[in-house]
Design brief:
It is a single chain. By secondary structure, the protein is α/β, with parallel strands linked by helices. Helix content is 48%, strand content 13%. It has one domain (49-242): Aminopeptidase (3-Layer(aba) Sandwich), CATH 3.40.630.40. It has nine helices and six strands; from the N terminus they run H-H-E-H-E-H-H-E-E-H-E-H-E-H-H. Helix 3 packs across helix 9 (220-242) and helix 6 (161-177) packs antiparallel against helix 9. The chain is globular and about 40 Å long.
Length: 251
């Protein structure tokens, strides 16, 4: 059931208040202010929208193991939970593919050697079942070099302009709020991006193979920054998408 206009207006007011409070907190916590998100149009754009947050990996799949105590699955879950809180405060309806250290595969499928494929399939099914308006899969990057750093957003160009524009919106805010100059990257043959019916992106929030970025991503303060970046990008994308503004996606 979608919210009534009155509920939407109340949620928009709460979203604006939340952003104003964040602006005060940001000054003391050395987080950037969120320019462009304090209008009624952008605040109301997300009210009642169904957003699926997909923290990658989980359970027996740790993702990238940076150290014995720094694991990709834990970092992306922490960011996902932060993002859920922010989105719900802004009036969105949030569905998590996982809320704890687990994956979505069954033990029977594990015995058949199909655990990973089953896990990914069920994540897509969660999104399609709830009729998501947007799907955000959160991961952290790694490579055999400490040199590379920076968040990057991936999308499937075959799904259409809305996915490309969502990726562009997310990446632009990461450029504004984090130390990255990367551009959105087209990527085909990613099962989740193909299987999810809603506009979908995979956000690699940084490189755990980079010592400085690994240290940042391990802190609650930087995790909140990343979550706020995703909130801001979703506010802007939904505002543009709602009023029918179109443009060219990333190259």
């Amino acid at each position: 059931m979608r919210p009534t206009p009155t509920v939407r207006a109340q949620a928009a007011a709460l979203a604006l208040l939340s952003i104003l409070i964040f602006s005060v907190v940001a000054r003391s916590a050395e987080l950037p202010i969120l320019p462009g998100t304090t209008t009624t149009a952008s605040a109301t754009s997300i009210v009642g929208k169904v957003i699926v947050i997909d923290p990658g990996h989980g359970g027996e799949d740790p993702g990238f193991l940076a150290t014995d105590t720094v694991r990709e699955k834990d970092i992306v879950l922490a960011i996902g939970l932060q993002l859920r809180r922010l989105l719900e405060e802004a009036g969105a309806i949030v569905v998590m593919t996982r809320e704890s250290d687990e994956d979505l595969a069954s033990e029977e499928e594990d015995r058949l050697g199909a655990r990973k494929a089953s896990d990914l399939r069920r994540r897509a099914e969660v999104s399609n079942r709830v009729g998501a308006d947007a799907f955000i899969s959160i991961h952290a990057n790694a490579i055999n070099s400490p040199r590379w750093y920076g968040a990057q957003t991936f999308y499937d160009p075959r799904k259409g302009e809305r996915d490309a524009l969502l990726a562009a919106a997310v990446q632009q805010v990461f450029v504004e709020m984090t130390d990255t100059t990367r551009r959105p990257l087209r990527r085909q043959n990613i099962y989740l991006m193909e299987a999810v019916e809603a506009p979908a992106v995979t956000v690699e929030v940084g490189f755990l193979s980079n010592p400085r970025e690994r240290e940042l991503l391990s802190t609650g303060q930087y995790q909140r920054r990343v979550a706020w970046a995703m909130l801001k990008s979703l506010l802007e994308w939904f505002a543009s998408d709602t009023i029918g503004v179109t443009g060219s996606g990333p190259n």
